[in-house]
Amino acid sequence: MAEPIRVAVTGIGSISALGHNVGEIWSALEAGRSGIGTITQVPADQVNIKIAAEVKNYDETKHFDDRELLVFDRFTQFALLSAKEAVADSGLDFKKDAALGLETASIIASGIGGWSTIDQAFYSLHKLGKPRTHPLTIPRMMISAAASQISMKFGLKGPAFCVSSACSSANHAIGEAFWMIRTGRARAALAGGAEAELSLTSQRSWESLRVMASDTCRPFSKDRKGMVLGEGAGILVLERLDDAKKRGANIYCEIAGYGLSADAGDIVMPDADGAARAIRQALQTSALDPEDIDYVNAHGTGTQLNDTTEVKALKIVFGPAAKRLMVTSTKSMHGHALGAASALEAVATVKAIQQGVVPPTANYLGPDPECDLDHVPNTARKAKLRAALSNSLAFGGLNAVVAFKAV
To answer: Active site includes 336?
Structure first.
């Protein structure tokens, strides 16, 4: 039997509350600097939770012309900017290599899609009493818009679609892109996720779930109060490792495996066994042993139940050896970007392996007896990382775990 095709990460791009590009974002992650602040996209006097992890100082007119802005919702804009950075970083040129474009996938996740466009349409119809919405409302709001726009921007004519599985969406997108390349269905892929859901409707809806923190996000810490919404995008360029080596590409790391599972339990209550099965599958498909893993970029939302459940899942898989793992949540800095969350976390994990630095769990006040692993509190740590997991455990019990390893 032929050896499976190995898959390299050769380009990354991102925008989030921590910065408008990977360089700015990584500097903030290394410094343990949180991007959470007072919300500005929603009038603070109309919401109870007045904080969010917003993309700051963002001017869409500096990136897109008037015609493009008629079609691009904010989440699509974020996806395109991150894709542009990732492709430039990879050194691939799809205009010069049209044949590669025919075999390159565009798999871009979102949990919600064009939420701001939907809000504007409802406001126009129900508040202003207008008889119709903007004629481009559907192309702007559809959840697959970012995947379509990226495929058109770069001439990618391979498999193109959106993945939407709540907070695991981007890990599912990255994992499916990895699997396509590994099985020979694609030569390369742009994969990740984008989200821009900060609005009055969204904020008030999340408040109703009573899982939101009013001060900040402090995963795995004592006195944690919940999650903080964020926004942004993260895109990875994936390609065959042999191809990347032949063209002398900068190779960040390798995607080695991918695990996914369903809890088949409760729509909002996570299950440790379901998460553990996804983690085990990521290890099995990567041919990595548990002792090979040095770092876990955790789902770590900052809610009481989610954090303790994830720690239990890691203990199920790793046993007593879980104590030696470095387990951090970068949501403490870039917030919970829903369908884009694991894309932001994948970028952080890739950089951690490349730089030999583990981003900390920021805002940490002290240990919770039920979250008793090494959560690298507040200060980044230098460490040579052989392999790492990026966990994503979504509402509905939809779990996706990606395994990365150094090349």
So the answer is: yes
